[in-house]
Structure formats: structure tokens, C-alpha cells
Design brief:
Elements (H helix, E strand, L loop, with lengths): L11 H11 L13 H16 L2 H4 L9 H25 L8 H14 L4 H8 L3 H11 L6 H8 L5 H14 L9 H11 L12 H14 L5 H29 L6 H29 L3 H28 L8
Helix pairs in contact: 1-2, 2-4, 2-11, 5-12, 5-13, 5-14, 6-12, 6-14, 8-9, 8-12, 9-13, 10-13, 11-14, 12-13, 12-14
Length: 326
């Protein structure tokens, strides 16, 4: 059956949300987003069907595998992946990482690329209290659903890699202490600093892309190597960034309840990054050399998305374009 003719200037994301509520999904087939913002808002709506709490998505979750939803998801992801692949090929980075030693070197090189963005240095040294809170509201913490992404990434792994991701997940769960679960610590931070919750539709497009990358990797099993690299990069970079947030807290006199979330990540994530590389990536590449370049590619994707996000954040909060990160 040929789908009805559709306008090319109608925003896709709200139509997808409405179709998921009504179940009238067939008219979505062949629809294109009007711009990048519309693309990522649409994909995030689709990813919610896979990863958001059921109380949030409700009965719409039953449409997760509907052919029309799959059509929209596949087409929008294909265009995005083509952009990511083009940027990766033009960068010409580290395609030879087919041994554990080369993969480790490549991962650490990508991690060093934007370890301390200008936005974090500005936060530590210059931002006022209102700017600090706005920054944290947009940043979302170093987790951003990291625990769920780790649980998805470990599916099908074995041996040392599976054990390392299990240990990482257990640390996210506070090692069994409900009061130390990382998402609980973040909720307390939000309350302590009266952090606003910014609706998705009001986020900059760079923040939407950053959030959507996790959904892209978590809902496409064939991208598991890239996911392993992207999550590993988060662990390699979070510690130094969290220390700069703590420096801002000290300078501005943040309440005590604001500290535990970032203290935990500042202390634990350097070990997490080291262990992720040595206990998850090294044995995986030793067993599957063809995964090495793809793991590094996933880290580079995340790094590139991060660079765009933090440059946008710096401009939004300061009115100044950030210099390339050291």
C-alpha cells in the first residue's frame, strides 16, 4: 500500500509522538524531519520506547517494533550514521587499532582530545552561581542513564569484559547501598541546588544529539563495539571534569548535599576508566581484533558529539566561542 502524500515542511517529532498515542502510525512511513533538531527529537521519542521507564511511555511502548516506527528509526539513523562515518573517515584516525596495545593507545589519544573542555575550565574559575546551576542542568551529570547503557552493552559479552561491566554497573548501584546509588546522589544534587529540569524541546540541538547517541548505540545490536568504546570514553574523561565542578562548588560555596555525586565520580571514575580499558577492551580486542577499530570509532563518535555540545554550552552561557580543548 502506498502511503499518502505528506508535506515536507511539517515537523516530524510531534507527529510521531501523537501517532504513538493514537496508534495511527502508517502515515509516518517515508516522512523526513525538517532539520537536525527535528531529527534528534524524533529519534529520542523512538528511543524512549526502548529505554525510558514504562510509567513515562505508557501504552505507546507496545509500538516499539511497529513497521512504521522501524521505518522512521532506520531512515533517520542511516542519515546520521552516514554523517558520523564521513567525519570519521575524514579525520583518518587510528583505523589500525587491531591489537590490544594499539587499541589502548588509540583510546587514550581520543580521551585526551577533549578531556578538559573550555566550558569546564570557565565553570571552575569564572562562572557565577546561576551559571553553574544552568551548566549542570544542561550537562546532566556524567551518568545520563549510564547504568542502563552499561547493562545493555554487556549483553553477549563474556569473561573479563562481562565481569568488568558487571562491576561497573554494581558501582553505579552504590555497591548495594540504596543511598549511594548514583542516580539517587544526582537527585539529591538537583534538590540541593534547586536545579531546573529543562524540557527536551528547549535543549540545544547539540544536547539532543549527545543524548541520542546513547539510544543509537543501545538499540542497534550491531553497534556493540562502538558502544563499548563510547562508554569507555565517558569513564576515561569524567574524573577530571568532575574535579573542576567541585572546584566551582568550593569557590561558590555550594551546599554540602551538592557534593557527593561529583565527589563519587571524581574519585571512582579514573579507576573505572583504567579498568574499562584493561579489563574490557584489551581482552575483547585480543579475542576479536576486528572490533578494535570499531571500539575506537565509537569513542571518537562520543568525543566529537561532546566537543559540539560543550562548545555550544560555552557559547550559550558566556557569549564567547570556546577555543579548542587542550
Amino acid at each position: 500500500m502506498t502511503p499518502p502524500a505528506l508535506s515536507t515542511n511539517r515537523t516530524l517529532a510531534p507527529d510521531v509522538a501523537q501517532a504513538l498515542r493514537t496508534g495511527e502510525l502508517d502515515p509516518l512511513v517515508g516522512r523526513q524531519p525538517v532539520d537536525r533538531r527535528d531529527r534528534f527529537l524524533t529519534l529520542l521519542t523512538v528511543y524512549d520506547l526502548h529505554t525510558a521507564p514504562l510509567e513515562q511511555v505508557g501504552d505507546a511502548a507496545r509500538h516499539q517494533g511497529h513497521p512504521a516506527v522501524a521505518d522512521v528509526k532506520t531512515r533517520l539513523e542511516a542519515a546520521w550514521l552516514a554523517e558520523l562515518e564521513l567525519a570519521w573517515s575524514e579525520a583518518g584516525r587510528l583505523e589500525e587499532a587491531t591489537t590490544p596495545e594499539r587499541a589502548v593507545t588509540a583510546m587514550r589519544a581520543v580521551a585526551a582530545r577533549d578531556r578538559l573542555p573550555a566550558a569546564y575550565k570557565w565553570l571552575a574559575d569564572t562562572a557565577d552561581w546561576e551559571q553553574l546551576v544552568d551548566f549542570l542542568a544542561l550537562e546532566g551529570g556524567p551518568d545520563g542513564g549510564f547504568d542502563d547503557l552499561v547493562s545493555a552493552c554487556q549483553v553477549g559479552l563474556s569473561g573479563s569484559a562481562k565481569l568488568e561491566l558487571a562491576q561497573n554497573y554494581w558501582d553505579e548501584m552504590g555497591n548495594g547501598d540504596p543511598d549511594a546509588v548514583h542516580t539517587v546522589l544526582h537527585e539529591r544534587l538537583v534538590e540541593a541546588v534547586a536545579m531546573p529540569r529543562i524540557p527536551r524541546g528547549e535543549l540545544p540541538v547539540e544536547a539532543l544529539e549527545r543524548a541520542a547517541l546513547g539510544g543509537l548505540l543501545a538499540t542497534n545490536r550491531w553497534l556493540q563495539p562502538e558502544m563499548l568504546g563510547a562508554l569507555g570514553l565517558l569513564e576515561l574523561q569524567a574524573g577530571p571534569r568532575c574535579r573542576l565542578v567541585l572546584k566551582a562548588f568550593d569557590r561558590l560555596g555550594a551546599p554540602a548535599a551538592a557534593y557527593p555525586f561529583y565527589v563519587e565520580h571524581a574519585e571512582v571514575d579514573p579507576r573505572h576508566g583504567k579498568d574499562w580499558v584493561e579489563k574490557a577492551i584489551v581482552p575483547t580486542v585480543a579475542e576479536r581484533p576486528e572490533w578494535g577499530p570499531r571500539i575506537v570509532k565509537g569513542a571518537w563518535w562520543r568525543s566529537s558529539v561532546n566537543l559540539g555540545f560543550f562548545a555550544s554550552l560555552h557559547l550559550e552561557l558566556t557569549g564567547e566561542r570556546a577555543r579548542p580543548a587542550a
